[in-house]
Design a protein that fits this description.
By secondary structure, the chain is an alpha+beta fold. The protein is 45% helix and 12% strand. It is built from 49 helices and 30 strands. Strand 5 and strand 6 form a beta hairpin. The N and C termini lie far apart (69 Å). The structure holds flavin-adenine dinucleotide (FAD) and iron/sulfur cluster (2 copies).
Length: 1023
C-alpha cells in the first residue's frame, strides 16, 4: 500500500463506446422522451442482479411510452447502428443474470409502471410492462380480484420481468404460471415495429403469416416450427407443472382448439425476442376462505416424502422448509410473531415443516377438505407414520401472512451467513416431478455434502421445485471452478430424475445448457424463432438462443462474475466494509410500498443508484478502484484522526480547490449517491443482509472530505449540538434572528439551509422552574439509599426535543411523576448524531466517548434512563457500538415505551375513555423495534385510551435532510407520498408522532405540530 494521505483521484474507468454515444444522440434527436443515463455510476447500478454475475452496460434508457420503445428500435435499425444491442430490464431481480447486458439497458420500471384498465366484469386487467406485481394486486384488491401467479419478489419484480421469466411460485398447481394468465401482449420488436398478440384461429394466424414485414415473418416461423416439429415438441418438453424458460413451442399452438398465441413464446423468452410494453392478464377472484395447516415432522426427508400425500388431499399449495431454515427462524426475532402458531411438540424435535394451504370460494367444500386432511394427519400421528409429529391450523389472514412472512424472512437470513462463504444462486430452482423430489433431494444433498458445502433448503414441494443456495466464496477462484463443476453435475442429476435445472427463475447465463436439453433438432427450431423475431441478435444476445445461421455464441456459466471484481479488494478492506460488500443484490430494498420505511431515497428518485443496493455497489467499486491505486481506506481512516494529517489535508484541499480544475472523478459520483441518502437506517434492519448504508456512507464522507472541501452547511449541522444550547439562553432574540425573512434568504443562499426551526419559548428550563424534576447532582444521587434510588427515572436529553420541543420533555417529567416515580433531568450532553451524519467521524468518536463515559457511570447505579427521540436513542445503540466497540460499555437508554411496557401491570390502570389517537411512528423506531405499534397500543389501552397505527413511510425530514436546500423537493415529495393523505384525514388533536423530525415536518407542511405519545398519555392520566 502507498503512503498516500488522502484518497486518490479516480479517473473514468470504462468509457461508453462511440457507437452508443452516436446512437444515443440520434435517439434524443428523434424525440425520445425518457431518461438517458451514461454515467459510470448509473451503468454500474444496472450491472448486477441477484446472480453471481457482473456485466457493465454501455448506457441505460428509461422510456416513458411505447412510442419511446419503438424509437429505441427504429433508430437502431439504421445500418450504422447494426452493432447496438439491447437488454430489457424490469426490477433486476433475476438470479441468473437474465437482465445483464454488455449493450444498452432498456429499463421500463422507472416510467412505464401503471395499471391501464381493470375490467372486473370480464375478469381482466391491462398494465404497462414496468408495473410491480404487488402494486397490481393493490389495484385489483378493491375489485375482489388478484393476479394469481405468486413470486417471492412480488414487491419489486415487474410484470414485464414476470412474463419474460414465466414467473410462478407458491400455489402454482392451482394458480399457474404467468403465461397461463397472459391474454394479450403489446410488444416492440428490435426493429421498432409493434407486435400485438392474442390467441387467434389458425386461419387468422396463417393470414398474418402471408403478409409482409416483421410480424408476418414471426407468424410464418412459428407456424412452420410448431407444425413441422409437433411430435418432437411433445416428446421433448417435460410434463412438468413448471415450464422452463425458452420458447414455449408446446403451448404456442393449442391443437385441440386450433388456436395460435405468439404471446406464449414471448412468455419465458427472457427479453431475447421483444420488449413487453403492455400486457392484458386474466385475474382471479380473491379466495373467500383460507386455512393453513402447518404439519410438523421429525425430519426434513419425512416432510418431503409426505408432501405428495398433501397434494393428493387437494391442497392449494404445499411449501416446505428444512431444519436449517427453521432453526434460523427460531433464533431470529421473527419467531416471536409465529411461536404460538407453530408450537413445539412435547417429546419431539421438529426438524421439518410442510405448510399446507387451502384457499377457496366455497366455505363448505373448504371445511370438508381441511377436515379430510386433519383426519388423515390424526391417523398418521396415532400410528406414528410418515414422521408426522403434529399439526396446527391457522385460519385468519393476518396469522397466515405472519407464517409466510417468517418463511420469507428465514430464507433471507440464510444470506447472512458469517465468513467469506455466502449462499449463492446458480442451481437454486431445480424442478423434478414431485414424486421424484425426495429421492432427488437426497442425492442432491449428497452431492453438496461431497463438496463440503453448507446450505439450507426450502421449496414448493407440490410442484417439485427446490430452492437451495450453497454457501461459496466467489472471491476464491477455486470456488468459481467448483461452481461450474456443480452446475454440470446438477444438470445431469435433474436430467436423471426427468426434471430440469431452471424450474422457476429462468436460464440467463445457464443458456449454454439449452442445446443439450432440447437436442440439436429442436434447438435449431428455437434459433429459427429467435431469427424471425430478432434477426440481428440485438435482444439480450446470447440468452436462450442465437439466430439460426448466425455464428453468435450463447452466454455461459463461466461469464465474468462479481467475485472477479470483489477479489481485487484486499481482504482486510473487504472485511472492514462488509456493510457494503455483502449486498447480494436480491433487491428487497426496491420495495415499491410507500408505507414501508425501505428506502425513501430510492422511492422518491426511482433511481437505483439511490437505493441501498446502488450505494453498496458504488461503494464496492470505489473500494476496488481506491485500493487498486495503492490507497488503503482503513489506514486512511486511522490517519484522518491525527492533527498533522488533518493540517496537511486542509492545505492540500485548499491548493486543490484553487489549482485543480473540476474533474471527471468517480469519487464525486459516489458522493452524489451518498448525499441523497436520508440516513434513516431502514436498510440497516430491513435488508436481510443488514447492508448498513449510514455507516459506510459516514466512512466514505469522512475520507472524501480529506481530499475535497466541505460545504459550510456541514459544519453548521455538525456543530449544532454546541451552539443550540447557547442560543437557547436568549431564545426570543435567537428566534427573531433565525425567523426573519432576511436571515432565511441569506441562510438559503449562503449555507443552503431552509425553514430553520424556532426554539421553544418558554425554554425547558423555564418550564421546569416549578416542576418536580430533580436537579441532577451525581454525588447526591449516589448518596441516596437504594430504597429511594429505585424510584428515580433519569431523562436523557437530546438537542432537538429539549430545545425545539420543550413541552414534550415537560410532559415526560409530569408523566413520570404521575406514575409515582421521581424524574431526574440529566444535564444535556451532545449525542453526536449530526456529526456522524456528516461523516465527521473523529469528532463523533470523541463525542460518543464522552457521552458513553457519562452514561456508563449512571448505568453503574442501575437506574432506568429514558430518551425521547428514536433516532438519537438508536444512535447510542448502533453508531456508538461501531465507533467505540467494547469501550461503549453497557449503558442502556430506553425509549419511553421500552421502559413502560415491562412494568405496565404494576402501574395503576385506567377505565376506558373516549380518547382515541393515531400514531405516525418514526421510521428508525419501526425498523429497530418492529413491535413498536403493538407496544404503544398496549400502553394506551392500559391508561384507558386507544391508539391506531397509521402505516407510513418516511416523512421526508430525517434529521436535517429536509432543511438542506438541495433536498427540498425530495423532502416534500416524500411527505406527499405517504404522510399527506392520512394526515389530512386525521383530526389534528389525534395525531401522535414519536420523531422530532416528523413533528417538525408536519409543522412545516401542515402548519401544526403533532403531539408526542407522552403528551397524550399525560392527557389520559390527568383526566
Ligand atoms: C430472493 C428471490 C426470490 C425469487 N423468487 C422467485 C419466485 O418465487 N418465483 C419466480 O418465478 N421467480 C423468483 N425470483 C426470480 C425473479 O424475481 C423473477 O424472475 C422475476 O420475474 C423477475 O422480474 P424482474 O422485474 O425483476 O425482471 P428482471 O430481472 O429485470 O428481468 C428478468 C428477465 O426479463 C426480461 N425483461 C424484464 N422486463 C422486460 C420487458 N418489459 N420486456 C422484455 N423483457 C423484459 C429481462 O431482459 C430478463 O431477461 C426470485 C428472485 C430472488 C432474488
Ligand atoms: S441492499 Fe440488502 S436488500 Fe438491497 S439488494 Fe443488497 S442485500 Fe438486498
Ligand atoms: S439509510 Fe434510508 S435512505 Fe439511506 S440507503 Fe438506507 S434506507 Fe435508503
Amino acid at each position: 500500500m502507498s503512503d498516500q494521505t488522502t484518497i486518490p483521484y479516480l479517473p473514468p474507468q470504462a468509457s461508453v463506446e462511440p457507437i452508443y454515444i452516436r446512437y444515443l444522440d440520434e435517439l434524443k434527436k428523434a424525440g425520445f422522451s425518457g431518461d438517458i443515463e451514461t454515467s459510470f455510476g448509473a451503468r454500474l447500478s444496472l450491472a448486477t442482479d441477484n446472480s453471481v454475475y457482473q456485466q457493465l452496460p454501455q448506457a441505460a434508457v428509461f422510456p416513458r411510452s411505447t412510442a419511446d420503445v419503438q424509437l429505441v428500435g427504429k433508430v437502431a435499425s439504421r445500418a450504422e447502428f447494426d452493432a447496438v444491442r439491447f437488454g430489457p430490464r424490469g426490477g433486476g431481480t433475476g438470479t441468473n443474470g437474465q437482465s445483464l447486458t454488455p449493450g444498452l439497458v432498456v429499463d421500463l420500471s422507472r416510467h412505464m409502471n401503471q395499471v391501464i384498465e381493470v375490467n372486473p366484469e370480464q375478469s381482466w386487467v391491462t398494465v404497462q410492462g414496468g408495473l410491480v406485481k404487488d402494486k397490481l394486486n393493490d389495484a385489483l384488491r378493491p375489485h375482489g380480484f388478484f393476479f394469481a401467479p405468486d413470486l417471492s419478489t412480488s414487491n419489486r419484480a415487474t410484470v414485464g420481468g414476470m412474463i419474460n421469466t414465466d414467473a410462478s411460485g407458491q400455489g402454482s398447481l392451482v394458480y399457474g404460471k404467468t403465461s397461463d394468465h397472459l391474454l394479450a401482449v403489446k410488444a416492440v420488436l428490435a426493429d421498432g415495429s409493434l407486435l400485438e398478440t392474442h390467441a387467434m384461429s389458425l386461419a387468422e394466424a396463417r393470414q398474418k403469416a402471408a403478409g409482409e414485414g416483421s410480424e408476418a415473418q414471426v407468424y410464418r416461423q412459428v407456424l412452420a416450427s410448431c407444425e413441422q416439429q409437433r411430435e418432437l415438441i411433445d416428446q421433448t418438453f417435460p410434463p412438468l407443472n413448471r415450464f422452463l424458460t425458452g420458447y414455449d413451442l408446446k403451448h404456442a399452438i393449442d391443437w385441440e382448439q386450433e388456436l395460435v398465441d405468439v404471446g406464449r413464446l414471448i412468455a419465458g423468452s427472457e427479453g431475447s425476442l421483444a420488449f413487453v410494453c403492455e400486457a392484458k392478464f386474466n385475474i382471479t377472484p380473491l379466495p373467500k376462505i383460507r386455512t393453513l395447516v402447518n404439519v410438523k415432522y421429525s425430519d426434513f426427508e419425512a416432510a418431503l416424502r409426505n408432501a405428495p400425500a398433501m397434494v393428493e388431499a387437494n391442497a392449494t399449495s404445499v411449501e416446505t422448509v428444512d431444519s436449517k431454515v427453521l432453526n434460523l427462524a427460531r433464533q431470529d426475532v421473527v419467531w416471536h410473531s409465529v411461536s404460538d402458531l407453530i408450537e413445539d411438540v412435547p417429546g419431539h424435535d421438529m426438524q421439518g415443516l410442510n405448510m399446507v394451504e387451502y384457499a377457496d370460494q366455497d366455505e363448505q367444500a373448504h371445511q370438508q377438505k381441511v377436515a379430510a386432511l386433519t383426519a388423515k394427519l390424526d391417523d398418521m400421528i396415532a400410528k406414528q407414520e410418515a414422521g408426522v409429529i403434529g399439526y396446527q391450523l391457522t385460519c385468519d389472514l393476518a396469522s397466515i401472512n405472519r407464517i409466510y412472512g417468517m418463511r420469507k424472512k428465514a430464507v433471507g437470513l440464510l444470506g447472512k451467513a458469517k465468513g467469506s462463504r455466502k449462499p449463492i444462486a446458480f442451481a437454486e430452482d431445480t424442478c423434478v416431478p414431485p414424486e421424484n423430489l425426495a429421492d432427488f433431494i437426497m442425492e442432491f444433498r449428497a452431492l453438496l455434502d461431497s463438496h463440503d458445502l453448507q446450505y439450507g433448503m426450502f421449496g414448493h414441494v407440490d410442484a417439485g421445485v427446490l430452492h437451495v443456495r450453497p454457501a461459496m466464496d466467489m472471491c476464491d477462484p477455486e470456488q468459481e471452478v467448483l461452481l461450474r463443476q456443480i452446475s454440470d453435475q446438477v444438470v445431469a442429476l435433474t436430467a436423471k430424475y426427468r426434471g430440469l435445472m431452471w424450474g422457476e427463475h429462468g436460464k440467463g447465463y445457464r443458456s449454454e445448457y439449452g442445446p443439450e436439453f432440447f437436442g440439436e433438432q429442436l434447438f435449431s427450431e428455437l434459433r429459427k424463432i429467435k431469427g424471425a423475431f430478432d434477426p440481428l441478435n440485438r435482444m439480450n444476445p446470447g440468452k436462450i438462443a442465437t439466430p439460426f445461421d448466425s455464428d453468435e455464441q450463447l452466454v455461459s456459466v463461466d461469464a465474468k462474475k462479481r467475485g472477479g471484481y470483489d477479489r481485487q479488494i484486499p481482504v482486510n478492506v473487504r472485511d472492514s466494509f462488509t456493510q457494503s460488500v455483502d449486498c447480494n443484490g436480491n433487491g428487497l430494498c426496491f420495495n415499491y410500498d410507500v408505507t414501508s420505511p425501505m428506502c425513501p431515497s430510492y422511492k422518491v428518485t426511482a433511481d437505483r443508484r439511490h437505493s441501498p443496493k446502488g450505494r453498496a455497489g458504488l461503494m464496492r467499486e470505489w473500494l476496488r478502484q481506491v485500493t487498486e491505486l495503492g490507497a488503503d481506506p482503513t489506514t486512511l481512516e486511522q490517519q484522518a484522526s491525527s492533527l498533522t494529517a488533518q493540517a496537511k489535508a486542509t492545505f492540500a484541499k485548499w491548493k486543490r480547490s484553487f489549482f485543480e480544475p473540476a474533474s471527471d472523478d468517480f469519487n464525486h459520483e459516489v458522493m452524489d449517491a451518498m448525499k441523497g441518502c436520508l440516513a434513516c437506517k431502514a436498510c440497516t434492519t430491513a435488508c436481510p443482509i443488514n447492508v448498513d448504508v449510514p455507516t459506510f456512507r459516514a466512512r466514505f464522507m469522512n475520507l472524501y472530505y480529506q481530499r475535497y472541501q466541505r460545504p459550510m452547511r456541514d459544519y453548521v449541522i455538525a456543530t449544532s449540538e454546541w451552539y443550540t444550547p447557547l442560543m437557547a439562553k436568549a431564545p426570543r432574540l435567537a428566534n427573531a434572528v433565525v425567523g426573519n425573512s432576511l436571515t432565511s434568504w441569506l441562510s438559503e443562499k449562503t449555507i443552503g439551509m431552509v425553514d430553520l426551526p424556532l426554539l421553544s419559548v418558554p425554554t425547558l428550563k423555564q418550564r421546569l422552574h416549578h416542576n418536580a424534576a430533580l436537579a441532577f447532582e451525581l454525588d447526591e444521587i449516589k448518596s441516596l439509599s437504594a430504597e429511594v434510588r429505585k424510584e428515580l427515572v433519569l431523562i436523557v436529553q437530546d438537542p432537538f426535543t429539549t430545545y425545539y420541543d420543550a413541552q414534550v420533555v415537560e410532559a415526560l417529567v409530569q408523566f413520570i411523576s404521575a406514575m409515582g416515580k421521581q424524574p431526574v433531568l440529566l444535564p444535556f450532553k451532545p449525542n453526536g448524531k449530526p456529526q456522524h451524519i456528516k461523516g465527521f467521524l473523529s469528532a463523533f468518536a470523541k463525542t460518543a466517548a464522552d457521552a458513553a463515559a457519562f452514561l456508563n457511570e449512571l448505568h453503574a447505579l442501575d437506574l432506568p434512563m429514558i430518551g425521547l427521540d428514536p433516532a438519537l436513542v438508536m444512535t447510542y445503540r448502533d453508531e456508538y457500538k461501531h465507533a467505540l466497540g467494547d469501550a461503549r460499555g453497557e449503558f442502556n437508554v430506553m425509549l419511553l415505551q421500552e421502559w413502560l411496557l415491562p412494568q405496565l401491570s404494576a402501574l395503576p390502570a385506567q377505565a376506558p375513555s373516549n380518547k382515541s389517537y393515531t400514531l405516525f411512528a418514526h421510521c428508525t423506531e419501526k425498523s429497530y423495534l418492529p413491535t413498536t405499534h403493538g407496544d404503544w397500543q398496549k400502553i394506551f389501552s392500559h391508561f384507558g385510551g386507544e391508539v391506531k397505527n397509521q402505516p407510513v413511510g418516511c416523512c421526508g425530514m430525517a434529521g436535517t435532510y429536509g432543511h438542506e436546500a438541495p433536498n427540498q423537493q425530495n423532502s416534500k415529495e416524500l411527505y406527499a407520498m405517504s404522510w399527506a393523505e392520512p394526515m389530512a384525514q386525521t383530526p389534528q388533536h389525534q395525531v401522535l408522532s414519536t420523531g422530532y423530525s416528523c413533528r417538525s415536518q408536519v409543522k412545516r407542511m401542515e402548519g401544526f405540530k403533532p403531539k408526542h405519545p407522552v403528551e397524550a398519555l399525560l392527557e389520559l392520566v390527568q383526566v
